[in-house]
Amino acid sequence: MNRSLVWRICCVVVLVITVLTFTTFVTPKGVAGPFLIGMPYTLWVGLLVTFILLAITIIGSLVHPGRDEPNS
Question: Which of 6, 15, 32, 50 could disulfide-pair with 63, CB 3.0 to 4.6 Å?
């Protein structure tokens, strides 16, 4: 895969995750369960989404199309 394709995939995945985060799938109204290690569902799914976005950001910074261009 070339870097441009990976960059576009990263952008699409970030947009999809951002939209899904604000749906009732991730943030249900008035629901705290199920719990994982004492944390309510919304908190641990929010942390999971944050770590996924962090990983995609790191990958995106490595494959960014303008990464190797000299500064002018």
Answer: 6
CB 17 within 8 A of CB 52: yes
Distance (Å, rounded) from C-alpha 66 to C-alpha 42? Answer: 36
Nearest to 60 by CA among 18, 5, 6: 6
Instruction: Report the predicted TM-score, pTM, of the whole model to 2 decimal places.
Output: 0.78
What tens digit of pLDDT does each residue of 47-68 get?
Answer: 999 999 999 999 999 998 877 7
pLDDT tens, position by position, 11-29: 999 999 999 888 887 777 7
Task: Please answer whether residues 33 and 27 qualify as being in contact, where contact means their C-beta atoms are separated by less than 8 angstroms.
Answer: no
If DSSP states are collapsed to H, E and C, what string results for 9-71?
HHHHHHHHHHHHHCCCCCCCCCCCCCCECCECHHHHHHHHHHHHHHHHHHHHHHHCCCCCCCC
